[in-house]
Amino acid sequence: ASQARGGSFATIWIISDIDKAPCKTQFFLLQAMARRIIHVDNRPSQLPEFHRIIASRSSQGNGKMLSCLLDYFLMEIPGSIFFAEQHIFLHENRNPSRIPMVEWLHIEDLKSFDTHVPIDLELMGFARDIVVALRHDCQVQIGPSVLARTHFRDVLKIRALLRASDFVKPHDFPSVASLVLSHRITTKGGLDKFPRSVVREVVFRLANKTLLPPK
């Protein structure tokens, strides 16, 4: 395990290709992520407050994932490719002996990122409006819970953090909304649309009304 020095910096642990792990392993990983506990050389370590654990799935995305774990899922592409494009130094630990239960996964350690990413009040209202609109959309049978707004906001902040952006930007809303909210809704029977399509329709419809068009 490694730690960043300095009060305004953080270490982010990214568990990649998590959909390749069995559901039981995913459950244990979810518990560890929630408690910020990692194992190095078979010794448990509690991560400090300024550490964050998130997950991504493989580029194919064919593996089954626990629905509760999808709140942590952020990226469609492997983290190593994403970060390489951003010219950010990345250290990969692929030693399977350290995590014998998760031989398909690897942990990537990213240092020196500020965890305090601001969201404009207008954009926070936009995120709230998206969740409310999905709860009342005529195409949706069961909408997202009120807690979805918090997860939506957190993922927006993490996405900005990983892109080395100083703040959340409007163009992140369509992709993040699809990832965070699509698994939280059930469309009405007989509707020939995927939940992601419904979410994106709602996002762009609201964007046109609020003059915040995501590009």
Question: How would you portray this structure in words?
Answer:
The chain has 215 residues and is an alpha+beta fold. The protein folds into 2 domains: 10-113, no CATH class; 121-210, Magnesium chelatase subunit I, C-Terminal domain (Helicase, Ruva Protein, domain 3). 35% of the residues lie in helices and 16% in strands. The chain has helices spanning 23-35, 79-85, 121-136, 148-162, 173-181, 195-210, and strands at residues 10-15, 37-40, 43-46, 51-55, 91-93, 107-113, 140-142, 186-187. The strands form 3 sheets. It has a 4-stranded mixed β-sheet, with no helix packed on it. A hairpin with a 2-residue loop joins β2 (37-40) and β3 (43-46). α3 packs across α4 (148-162), α3 crosses α6 and α4 (148-162) crosses α5 (173-181). The longest helix has 16 residues, at 121-136. It is globular and about 55 Å long. The model is unreliable at 1-10 and 72-115 (pLDDT under 50).
Produce a short descriptive summary.
Residues 133-188 form the ChlI/MoxR AAA lid domain. This protein is α+β, with helices and mostly antiparallel strands.
